[in-house]
Each structure stands twice: as structure tokens, then as C-alpha cells.
Amino acid sequence: MSSAPIPANVKSRAPQQTLARLRAPFALRCGAILVDYIILAAILAFSTLISRLLGGGARTAGTSSESLAVFLVLVVAVLNLGVLPGLTGLTIGKWATGLRICRADGRDVGMGRAFLRHFVGYPISFLLLGLGFLVAAFTSSNRALHDWIADTVVVRDVGLRR
Hints:
Helices cover 69% and strands 6% of the residues. The protein contains seven helices and two strands, in the order H-H-H-H-E-H-H-H-E. It is elongated, with a radius of gyration of 20 Å. By secondary structure, it is mainly alpha-helical.
């Protein structure tokens, strides 16, 4: 039994229609980014607590532990916001909220787009007083400015991967 070939235009529309149905709601996206930034803030808060306990008035112990914390936050940020999404399409926050980042055509994000999205697109969205993030709440595509910049979309993770 051979089935008739699927016309090219149907093949190309199917992933787009599936992605449109699975687009992540704005509130869930906010929850995901909140989880990601709580992790970074918790590292800084914990290190500040440790530096105050170790410092006891002398600033040398506090300064070195705070410097270590800033370095650790940078490493965790690069891993969580760049490397992890580049390899899996997930940040810790996206994983916790059941979301995934993928390209607008449904393919995997890749490392370059993940870094572009988070380390170029996010700062631009912040510099515009957060309006780059609000775009996702008021457009039918549910894509924020950083998604447009990197040609990505955030969707619910319901077995999109192999």
C-alpha cells in the first residue's frame, strides 16, 4: 500500500500550524524567566550572606567571596541561558514551566541563536524599558522582541522532540 505524496505546501504548513497551537502563554513565559533570574539572584544573595559571615568587619573575605559569586553567576547565566537552550531548547525556567524554545520553523534552536536571543535580544528588550518583552503579550504570534531578533518561538513542550 503506497500512500499518495503529500503536497509540498501541506508539508511546510503543518509544523507552523502545530507551533501556532502550542505557543506559550505570556504568563507562563514570565514564570519561566522569573525562575531563571531567581536562581541567579539566589546565588548572589547566598554569597552575600556568606561574605558577611566570613567578613566580620574585615572586607577582604567579603570581597573575595563576592567576586567568586559574581563569577559563578556569570558562569551559570552562560550555561543556563546560552549553552543549555542551544543544546536542548530549555533553560531551567523553561523546563520547570513546561516550555521549550525552538526556531520559528520548528527546528532546534542551536547555540548561536540561543546566545543571540539571550545575550543580544534580552538586553535590547531591557533597554526599551521592558517593552520588548511586552510585545509577546499583545501580538497574535506571542513572540517577544528577542524572539524576533533570533527567529525563535517559545512553545509548550508536549513531545516536540524525537
